[in-house]
Amino acid sequence: MDMEVTAWQSLRSAMNAQQDRRPFSRATLRRIATFAGRHHRQLYRFLLLSVVTALLAVATPVLAGRVVDAIVQGRGSGTVTRLAWLIAAIALAEAGLGLLTRRLSASLGEGLILDLRTAVFDHVQRMPVAFFTRTRTGALVSRLNNDVIGAQRAFSDTLSGVVSNVVTLLLTLAVMLSISWQVTLLALVLLPVFVVPARRMGTRMAALQREAAQHNAAMGTQMTERFSAPGATLIKLFGRPTEESAAFAARARRVRDIGVRTAMAQSTFVTALTLVSALALALVYGLGGHYALRGTLAPGAVVSLALLLTRLYTPLTSLAGARVEVMSALVSFERVFEILDLKPLIAEKSDARRVPDGPVSVEFDKVSFAYPSAEKVSLASLEDTAILDSRGGTEVLHDVSFRVEPGRMVALVGSSGAGKSTIAQLLPRLYDADSGSVRLNGVDVRDVSTESIRETLGMVTQDGHLFHESVRANLLLARPDATEDDIWDALRRSRLDGLVASLSDGLDTVVGERGYRLSGGERQRLTIARLLLARQRVVILDEATAHLDSTSEASVQEALGEALEGRTAVVIAHRLSTVRAADLILVVEGGRVVQRGTHTELMAAAGRYQELYRTQFENPQVRDTRPVS
């Protein structure tokens, strides 16, 4: 490796040195060892090959010196030829071992990435909904990408570098001291001239890199928000494109200026250190040549010393920043482990049961609930805040009790924020009740397996969320083994078969981010088709037609009639037709059930339901459609 490459390595190490100075954590090291232990055979081979490669790297300069001595001493072409063949063999061995070492390094690093990513992904999937309502998606994705890759470098780059550099340094020093301790000391005296400028330049470069990273992150956030369908619509309706462009351009220009300054600083630094290395070589040749002329040093030894000089500076400068590189890797590991250490509030029991077969009853028995505080479900680093929000823990449901018989419908009505959606979210166990019990066919949902809940209960929400995938993929999410006939039957029953058939790619048509290529009514009917395809026995409708126009609502109501037929239903209602069709109406206010009964019974009794009926359901602007059951 030449001195220019060594200069670049020195600068990189110095820049990394400014990034983080956190202390070692033994607990983190133990957990890293646990992950690495899964690949212990590859790790041992990797370390062994690194040591052998370092040995070969030191052998070549020594043999080159012997070639010179053989020529000067006139030992004959046979000796020179044998040494040349040996150097060639070592070069071939270095090349082969280098490729093998790189393969092991890549396999080890990528294997670690696979383990960490799958561990984090699986763990995040077990987190409660409250976790996702607080967490910045970009920060979470960064843990799965940047931090996992940073942790991988600890094995693929840093570990091999430390091992090979330590071996190379010790062997090089030993060989150089055996050849000439005077020249070796001279080389060590010049080392500060090589390293100190790197430290100072590294501080400046690190500051520039941090600023550039901040501007790039800001531009990334701006693009992510403005280029999504809702964000682009908001800008076109209320935004100021000129100001948006100016703000983006200002950041981009600053990144450009930093890039120019960084390039010039790097070039100046490398040029200066290359000059220093050339001067060091000149001193080695000068002093070594002086000793050679006096007969105290062989000419070949001078050549060996000159070649060994770079083998001395490279590991020294690399090891100078090795601790920092290790610390940076540890920080990445800690950020990954920080996610893995966040305990899911909802966990499946080892002896979890299935919901009994047949029609399903739904029962709430004295259920009370408070949304968890941030410290229980989130991390400050994932919310982009220094201190987590201390709010939470205030009870929002109080002793809620009711029962829905199999195949019947209960409608929840009440003011906004009364707790209707919270009740609905406790059934599929998006949250767990703090006290009381939520039961399906008499079995507490906390004793039921997640798979059984998913097979038993389906939910249609207001937004009708879809993935940026095909119509087919969005439907098969509910039932992967569904046949083509099953899919078209679900589309027909949701009044969507004609639309899908008219699309250019049919079932393979991509619906766009969050389904934005479809209208609101079409999105909602597609989510209902997904529900029909799943054939779940309990249906929850959380104001599924709240944001639709009259035409779309009529189509969705027809589809809902299909979805509710023969199923137990919990409906958060805002339409008169839904309320009248319900077998039981619960009036929820302040987290309590304040009235219950049929529409006729509640209208006959003075109370909150009469007020809601007159202010919401009897409003002439609210279009009453046909009953949904």
Short recap of the structure:
This protein is an alpha/beta fold and 629 residues long. The chain is built from 24 helices and ten strands. The radius of gyration is 35 Å and the shape is elongated.
List the helices and strands and how they pair.
Layout: H1 3-17, H2 26-37, H3 40-73, H4 77-125, H5 129-134, H6 137-179, H7 181-189, H8 191-227, H9 229-238, H10 241-294, H11 299-320, H12 322-340, E1 362-370, H13 374-377, H14 380-383, E2 395-404, E3 409-414, H15 420-426, E4 435-440, E5 443-444, H16 450-456, E6 457-460, H17 471-476, H18 484-493, H19 497-502, H20 520-534, E7 538-542, H21 550-564, E8 568-572, H22 576-581, E9 584-589, E10 592-597, H23 599-604, H24 608-617
Parallel strand pairs: 3-8, 3-9, 6-7, 7-8
Antiparallel strand pairs: 1-2, 1-4, 4-5, 9-10
Description:
With 629 residues, the protein is α/β, with parallel strands linked by helices. It folds into 2 domains: 3-340, ABC transporter transmembrane region fold, CATH 1.20.1560.10; 362-617, 3-Layer(aba) Sandwich (Rossmann fold). The chain is 65% helix and 9% strand. It has 24 helices and 10 strands. Strand 4 and strand 5 (443-444) form a beta hairpin. The longest helix has 54 residues, at 241-294.
